[in-house]
Amino acid sequence: MDYKDLANLIFPDAKDISYYEEKYPKRNLPEGAMVVRVAPSPTGNVHIGTIDQALLNKKLAKQTGGVFFVRVEDTDQKREVENGIKQIIDSLKKFDLEPDEGMITETESKGNYGPYRQSLRKEIYEAYAKYMLAQGKAYPSFETQEELNELRAKQEAAKVRTGYYGIWATCRNLSVDEAVEKIKAGEDYIIRFKSPGREDRKIKHKDVIKGNVEFPENDQDIIIIKSDGLPTYHFAHAVDDHLMGTTHVLRGDEWLSSVPLHLQLFQELGFKPPKYAHTPTLLKNDNGGKRKISKRKDPEAAASYYEEAGIPSASVKEYLLNIANSTFENWRRANPDKSIDEFDFQLNKMSVSGALFDMVKLLDVSKNVISRYSAERVYDEASKWASEYDEELAEILKDKEYALQVFGIERGNAKPRKDLAKWSDVKDTISYMYNDKFDKNAEFEYGKISDKEEITKITKLYIEKYFNINDDKETWFNKIKNLAEELGYAREVKIYKAEPEKWPGHVGDISTVLRVTLTGRQNTPDLYEIMQVLGEDTIKDRLS
RNA sequence: GGCCCGUUGGUCAAGCGGUUAAGACAUCGCCCUUUCACGGCGGAGACAUGGGUUCGAUUCCCGUACGGGUCACCA
Known about the structure:
Distance between the termini: 102 Å
Number of strands: 14
Radius of gyration: 33 Å
CATH topology of the largest domain: Rossmann fold
Number of helices: 23
Strand order of the largest sheet: 1-2-3-4
CATH architecture of the largest domain: 3-Layer(aba) Sandwich
CATH class of the largest domain: Alpha Beta
Helix content: 40-55%
């Protein structure tokens, strides 16, 4: 009995790897094209980090004329969640990050390098595992979970490295005959990689983001095929990214320490390894400390959080790009109207250390993003959000024509309004533009002029003598000045400031009275525009 | 604990041996403005620490501290 016999005994039906090597030929892509991917697990609640990876990967693929694909890593059935794949696909869609290849629905995919779902690639992994077995580069291992736990305990007690390696790797030294005998006796086993590494040797690796990194070689005989017949991440990564032609693996920092293992796996499988780029983790401020943003503890870790909060996906992407390349901010300032597709993302300019997720900054970015939108787009997105998350707002927005006028206030000009950071801000910002949301008898907080009689006097005189909906802005404001003067107030703020004791107030105070009476608040956009939209009847009604 | 990675204002960050150490957000003040949101101007605020190397270190090397990651039949 030799290794080949052992391989045949374990995987009698597995195909020769040449079958797959031919089935998935080298991609015919231009020089420098990057083949990249995002490889999420369907464990529920798509992580914002996945969106981040997808965004960056997709940009890289686009910039280089390459391919961006999505591969679902569902090799852990225990953690798998119903609808997990759908959630991933939907999230990517919501962020406008659809892949060139990969899963497009729960069951369907597109592209010639599939399946793009690892659980469907079982026979492929088996072929490669068999190949390793036949070369003596992998072996069956018969320990039970309990025995492994005992091994660990022993190692911990002895204060040595834990794991399955060297003298601790008992099954590594089993002869083929012994292994065959155990298998034939019906003992359970898993397949382990026979690591050629030595811990006292170093390997050097150049990470695209982190730069040069030095590690001890891997000497762990890690499991490549689990007892459920599915591969572990490490083995699947090597096989899949080889077969799918991945050129660059962008993944979270937490994988950096697996690089020695992965390089070894590629080496022993005879594959050309991809370039690795380990992206810094998104962190979160936790009582003054920093920690990895966590799906379990932090709502903002979920990609869906932003949609629910009404933060446009475009804003999230801009913020993420901001973190990825600090040059983005300047680029955006110089090119306010360009699509982010035109921004030249540089992988090697990414920050090396993790950034604290800054919601305030995100909102600021978002404010600017929304300020660039047309009234039409604000309307579309706000109502789309409202239809799902805010019934009352959805109701308000039903009258599209009017809503467009409302959203058009101080928008579309050189200095657009920047008071909307998320769609959930909308209702409060525009409610007074709607009669059924405005209670003209409510107690408002006025400014300097708060005497009820004085207020009535001002509004009454305004309506009777000065108000005309057809006035242009200059005439309109001049009339308010005249109104101020007639009532004994300074018609210009400057005059007032020169001699404040001379007047009870100035034109601004008069405006405030009109503003508060009309809108219920002291801070609003341009009052003239508001009045134009409100219309004659509403104005007269509110001011009298 | 072992092994990795990191540490520039409150936050994100430029910086690659000689700089008055950029910029953005936040903050404070002023200006503009009939109020806000903008916009403009300005203020305060940083190279974790100790040793080297060097004529000179934020920048290079070593140690320390702190932070993060990783050590599964999870990815």
